[in-house]
Design brief:
about 60 residues; alpha+beta; 4 strands; about 45% helix; flat
Length: about 60
């Protein structure tokens, strides 16, 4: 289970080879439809926030 800003997402995951001692990649192998929609909304929200934050940095950058 993962907690997101859009609610909890419950699904089955497969653990992949570790990248480092602190990073463990995984992939979802099963999600319910409503959980998939919540996950998509959380990812989109994160992408939108990153674009907004990047725009703020560019606007205030000293050239």
């Amino acid at each position: 289970m993962f907690l997101t800003g859009r609610g909890s997402v419950l699904g089955a995951a497969e653990m992949l080879s570790p990248i480092s001692w602190s990073l463990q990649p995984f992939k979802f192998v099963g999600l319910y439809d409503d959980d998939q929609q919540k996950l998509q909304a959380a990812i989109q929200s994160s992408l939108d926030q990153n674009r907004h934050d990047h725009g703020q940095v560019e606007r205030h950058r000293a050239w």
